[in-house]
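Sequence design from tokenized structure. All designs in this work follow the same two-part layout: the structure record, then the generated sequence. An example of the structure record is given first.
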């Protein structure tokens, strides 16, 4: 039986695996899918160059120096093959419970 996903909300917490499952189950709607942690430092520079609102805070080097690569994640939302949204996300791990918070 297919896993049902609730409507996304600002307070919903997903693991990386759950985010990937939402993509494969079509929870984002027709033709949308996500890429989580598939970008490299080199490819990320090309991604943010496509957006007028990109800032220093979304660059790979800033996140790596400020928070550490281990504490960063890359997120791409695609409609078909076109990138619709992109974010470098800071991961805050909560000790003892095995979960964390993603700060966009």
């Amino acid at each position: 039986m297919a896993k049902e996903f609730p409507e996304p909300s600002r307070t919903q917490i997903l693991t990386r695996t759950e985010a990937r499952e939402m993509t494969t189950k079509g929870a984002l709607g027709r033709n949308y899918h996500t890429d989580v942690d598939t970008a490299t430092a080199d490819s990320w520079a090309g991604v943010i160059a496509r957006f007028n609102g990109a800032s220093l805070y979304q660059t790979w080097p800033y996140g790596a120096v400020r928070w550490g690569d281990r504490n960063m994640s890359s997120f791409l939302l695609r409609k078909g093959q076109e990138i619709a949204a992109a974010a470098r996300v800071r991961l805050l791990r909560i000790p003892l419970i095995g979960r964390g918070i993603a700060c966009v």
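The chain has one domain: 16-103. We note this feature because it recurs in several other targets discussed in the main text.
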